[in-house]
């Protein structure tokens, strides 16, 4: 009897505590909502929150999947019966629509052609067999000077307020699509710059490497076979088709193959010293960002120099950054000429340096461009610093 009374008391206590916690959480939530201020403040917050949710789905531009997901959020902003989003070839999303619908592209095409918002009244919709209730307003999505799609809203009666709201929403979508195309353009530019580096590698280095390999075929066949394998591994890495990023370790492994092939040509004239901290080997860096620096040291630092040439490659921890240096004791570069090359004002043999410098600035910001100390007859020291933590980049 006593045990049953205790159990009952415990159950009641748990229930009271649960109700208190729920009440407290409800109070905090309602309090936080009231803290937003007036009804206008709350409406502004709701609009911005909805826009933020929708923008996540437009990062890749106007795609069927992205437009469909974004439309689920954007329809509420216009308070319309049906929201449609199209590109310049098809209607990508119909949020709120029921059942099958006829092709709306004849209406969309007119907006694409004129670049102006259009109102489609009920009579014309009936003529096209559109079963959606009411009327339609269609506004253009623009990127630059081009109309790339439309945003449309079905409602029982289109008034001036809905026309303005739809036009503004189409303008907002235009901005998101423009940003997506800018990101795409940057990726294409990065790929083009990598292709340019590959093109720079291929004529000079491949020709010299094959000549060096050929010179060993009769005198040292085993060495020739080893060099062929190293040459194949180097070119396989340099001309790979996937990934904008690699690691310091992978880039250094490719550099080791490159230098092995160059030693076959230069012999004892080329001396290389490495000082590599193991803690930075996994750091992510843009693909082909170190090899061109070493190739610059060999081609432009040592080829024109009499006697032995020395190259020192270091990689070490520098706090939040990984720092890599490539130093040679070659003929050096005139600083004014180098500045002109890096600014893109002069095309010459140092274009690889400009390419790497531009990609580093594009990925990490202007403060992370190459730092180059050089002078005629004084050799060249190139320093590269990249963040060790790069959550958005994968090798």
Could you walk me through the main structural features you see in this protein, from its secondary elements to its overall organization?
It is built from eleven helices and twelve strands. The chain has 395 residues and is an alpha+beta fold. It folds into two domains: 39-179, GAF domain (Beta-Lactamase), CATH 3.30.450; 217-387, 2-Layer Sandwich (Heat Shock Protein 90), CATH 3.30.565. The strands form three sheets. Strands 2-1-5-4-3 form a five-stranded antiparallel beta sheet, sandwiched between helices. A five-stranded mixed beta sheet has the order 7-9-10-12-11, covered by helices on one side. A two-stranded antiparallel ribbon has the order 6-8. The chain is elongated, with a radius of gyration of 32 Å. Residues 1-33 have low confidence and may be disordered.
Produce a short descriptive summary.
The chain is built from eleven helices and twelve strands.
The CATH architecture name of the largest domain reads: 2-Layer Sandwich
Name of the CATH superfamily of the largest domain: Histidine kinase-like ATPase, C-terminal domain
The unreliable regions are 1-33
- Nearest-angstrom radius of gyration? 32 Å
Mean pLDDT, as a whole number?
A: 79
Features:
Beta-Lactamase, 2 domains, 11 helices, 395 residues, disordered N terminus, 19% strand, 53% helix, Heat Shock Protein 90, 12 strands, 5-stranded antiparallel beta sheet, single chain, alpha+beta, 5-stranded mixed beta sheet
């Amino acid at each position: 009897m006593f045990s049953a009374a205790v159990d009952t008391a415990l159950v009641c206590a748990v229930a009271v505590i649960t109700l208190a916690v729920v009440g407290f959480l409800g109070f905090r939530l309602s309090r936080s909502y009231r803290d937003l201020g007036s009804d206008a403040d709350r409406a502004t917050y709701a609009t911005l929150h909805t826009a933020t949710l929708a923008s996540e789905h437009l990062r890749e531009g106007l795609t069927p999947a992205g437009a469909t997901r974004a439309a689920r959020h954007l329809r509420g902003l216009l308070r319309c019966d049906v929201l449609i989003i199209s590109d310049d070839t098809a209607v990508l999303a119909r949020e709120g629509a029921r059942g099958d619908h006829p092709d709306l592209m004849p209406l969309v095409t007119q907006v694409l052609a004129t670049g102006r918002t259009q109102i489609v009244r009920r009579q014309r919709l009936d003529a096209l067999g559109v079963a959606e209730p009411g009327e339609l307003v269609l506004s253009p999505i623009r990127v630059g000077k081009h109309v790339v799609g439309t945003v449309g809203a079905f409602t029982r009666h289109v008034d001036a307020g809905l026309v303005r709201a739809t036009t503004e929403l189409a303008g907002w979508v235009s901005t998101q699509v423009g940003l997506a195309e800018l990101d795409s353009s940057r990726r294409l530019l990065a790929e083009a710059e990598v292709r340019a580096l590959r093109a720079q590698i291929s004529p000079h280095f491949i020709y010299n490497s094959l000549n060096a390999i050929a010179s060993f075929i009769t005198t040292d066949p085993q060495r020739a076979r080893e060099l062929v394998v190293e040459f194949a591994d180097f070119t396989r890495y340099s001309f790979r088709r996937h990934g904008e990023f690699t690691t310091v370790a992978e880039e250094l492994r490719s550099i080791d193959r490159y230098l092995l092939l160059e030693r076959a040509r230069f012999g004892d004239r080329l001396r290389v010293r490495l000082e590599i901290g193991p803690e930075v080997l996994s750091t992510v860096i843009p693909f082909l960002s170190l090899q061109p620096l070493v190739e610059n040291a060999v081609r432009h630092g040592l080829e024109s120099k009499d006697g032995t040439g020395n190259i020192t490659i270091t990689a070490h921890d520098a706090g939040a950054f990984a720092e890599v240096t490539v130093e040679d004791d070659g003929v050096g570069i005139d600083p004014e000429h180098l500045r002109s090359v890096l600014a893109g004002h002069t095309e010459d043999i140092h274009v690889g340096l400009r390419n790497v410098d531009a990609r580093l600035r594009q990925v990490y910001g202007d403060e992370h461009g190459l730092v180059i100390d050089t002078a005629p007859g004084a050799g060249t020291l190139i320093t590269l610093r990249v963040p060790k933590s790069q959550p958005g980049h994968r090798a």
